[in-house]
Amino acid sequence: MTSGPARTSGAAYDSLSKSAANYVPLTPLSFLRRTAAVFPERLSVIHGPRRFTWGETYRRCCQLASALQKHGVGQGDTVAVVAPNVPALYEAHFGVAMLGAVLNAVNIRMDARMIAHFLTHGQAKVVMVDREFLGVTESALAHASEADRSFRPFVVVIDDATADITWPPNEPSYCIRRYTEYEELLGRGDPNFRWEWPTDEWAAISLNYTSGTTSNPKGVVYHHRGAHLNAISNALVWSMPQHPIYLWTLPLFHCNGWCFPWTVALLAGTNVCLRKVTAANVYSAIAQHGVTHLSGAPTVLGMLVNAPPQEKRPLPHPVAIITAGAAPPPTILTRIEDAGFKVTHVYGLTESYGPAVVCAWKPEWDSLPATEQARLKSRQGVPYPALEGLDVLDPKTLNPVRADGETIGEVMLRGNVVMKGYLKNEAATTEAFEGGWFHTGDLGVKHEDGYVELKDRSKDIIISGGENISSIQVEGILFQHPAILEAAVVAKPHPKWLETPVAFVTLREGSERCSEAEILQWCRENMPRFMCPSRVVFKPLPKTATGKVQKYVLREEAKRMPDAIESKL
After folding, report:
1. How many CB atoms lie within 10 A of CB 362?
2. What pLDDT digit, counting tens, does each position of 132-170 carry?
3. N or C: which end of the chain has fewer CB within 10 A?
4. Which ranges of 219-306 does DSSP label H, i.e. alpha helix?
5. Which of 78-92, 167-181, 472-486 has the lowest mean pLDDT?
6. Which neighbouring-strand residues pair with 81?
7. Could you say which DSSP state residue 134 is in?
8. Which CATH code fits 29-223?
9. Contact 555/214 with Cβ under 8 angstroms?
């Protein structure tokens, strides 16, 4: 009898261990290093009249790391940046990480007290601030020093020529001469600085505070591994080619620009910085620089399609646009694609490095009517390649709900692109990760084809007369009214029905004569009676810097309204 090959035991496999030859921690710093070596002469950054190549960007990032190290920044230290989409903030996404330090890109629309909270909570060792935001940052530093006399970060001013105000100002609250200007700081650094690769891919790379749709922002911590993987996933789900030209309509401070600073470096693309996001500026940048890709909340889509004719320009080629945030209304999706933009819909949270779910498009859907395509595209979809788990679960039992497109549960995620946790908040981290899933707080359904569709935030669902009302569904119908530009629906306490919907709307230009009675009558004709708003309020909607409507503000306003006389049913 001939004996077969010897069976390999598990122990034999286990004896093969990691070494410097076969294991290197993942980090998005590898994208910059490779691109600078392979494509050093390609344009990396366009900002007004300024141009940088990838070779120059790499050297500038090394200079930043070197200069920060001379000021005592090292492993685990926080460097905060208060700036719009300017080259210095892009460079900080690499230069800070080269030291093993942690980047905190601060929301520039926050007030001084909130910025002070971010700076002290993250214990920023260095604060880099664009000159336009020096006033609010000085106030924040004053608030911070009142709370902690030992808090004295090194301050660097980014003297960007596109800012609306000059630097230094005439009457600074501090002695401005003690500040260092950003280019001066770089001049102190070594362009050949030998930075250290992270020894652990689980090491923190950035700190992002939740966006402010709730009143209690938390510090979300990302690691090198997640940033690396989500940057690659961005390229895959968008089918991005080599050398894209990416327009920065999305704030770099929001989830680190959804990881696209690292994606653009991976693909040796060109970053077109945009300080102020207006329809005119976007259309102009597309025409001038040949922009191929941009990202933004549905409000950006609405801004582009509703821009006055004098601000629009014909697109020289189809432009790919990723949208995330609130579910985009199908009407907006139809109009934006008619204008020549090709939309990809993604979903995620600050806690998932930005987008981690995508409405992956299937070729067979191309033959469907435009309205049906828009309906399908408004769904959130399926996992990113780097997300290991996505499901809609019963929040109490953690059992999956039926895939029938109707049964509501909580959307939950798990995998390498879920945050490390909340900084200095163990209780909130434990609660968020209960049962081995990240609890998003978003309510949704799962369709038969596995695609997830949001129905509401758990705190935004409206329970009226025993019926669950999706505010997103009501908003989607309101968007179909020709006079309505924007809409947000929240719950108002009601003595009989428990809660009743209230609609806050912004009207299109030229539709100012549209009345509350007209909108209410239209609602009765286009949605079930129990879903109809009891009131319609005309006003600009309060939003975060990333375009999300701050519904908690609207809920407080709705509470103070008198009850509607008319019965709901």
Report:
1. 9
2. 999 999 999 999 998 888 999 999 999 998 988 765 555
3. N
4. 224-237, 255-258, 260-266, 279-289, 298-305
5. 167-181
6. 105, 128
7. H
8. 3.40.50.980
9. no
End-to-end CA distance of the chain: 85
Residues 52 and 41: their CA atoms lie apart, in Å, by 9
Residue 396 CB partners (closer than 8 Å, separation 6+): none
CA dist 238 and 62 (Å) reads 30
Are 313 and 404 in contact by the 8 Å Cβ rule? The answer is no
Check for a shared fold between 277-387+447-453 and 462-559. no
At residue 104, what is the residue type?
A: N
The answer to whether the beta carbons of residues 443 and 458 sit under 8 Å apart is yes
0.85 exceeded by pTM:
no
> What is the domain partition of the chain in residue ranges?
29-223, 277-387+447-453, 462-559
The β-bridge relationship of strands 270-272 and 319-323 is: unpaired
Confidence of residue 568 (pLDDT cuts 50, 70, 90): very low
pLDDT of residue 1: 52
For residues 193 and 62, the answer to whether their CB atoms sit within 8 Å is yes
- C-alpha 102/C-alpha 511 separation (Å) is 48
Question: Which amino acid appears at position 80 of this protein?
Answer: A
Structure tokens given for 417: 């692109």
Q: In percent, how much of the chain has pLDDT > 90? A: 68
pLDDT tens, position by position, 350-373: 999 999 999 999 999 999 998 888
Are 141 and 119 spatial neighbours (Cβ–Cβ below 8 Å)? yes
Residue for token pair 């009989």: 496
The dotted CATH code for 277-387+447-453 is 3.40.50.980
CB 232 within 8 A of CB 7: no
**Would you state the CATH architecture of domain 462-559?**
2-Layer Sandwich (3.30)
* Separate counts of helices (H) and strands (E) for the chain: 18, 26
Provide mean pLDDT across the span 230-251. Answer: 96
Mean pLDDT of the chain, nearest integer: 89
Residue 172 in this model has a pLDDT that exceeds 50: no
| CA nearest to 127, candidates 77, 189, 59, 200 | 77
Judged by average pLDDT, the poorest of 80-94, 311-325, 454-468, 489-503 is 454-468
Q: What is the pLDDT of residue 5?
A: 57
CA distance 155 to 561: 46
Quickly list DSSP for 413-438: EESTTS-SEETT-HHHHHHHTGGGSE
In 3D space, the residue among 122, 82, 93 whose CA is nearest the CA of residue 220 turns out to be 122
137 touches 164 (CB < 8 A): no
Per-residue pLDDT at 326 exceeds 70: no
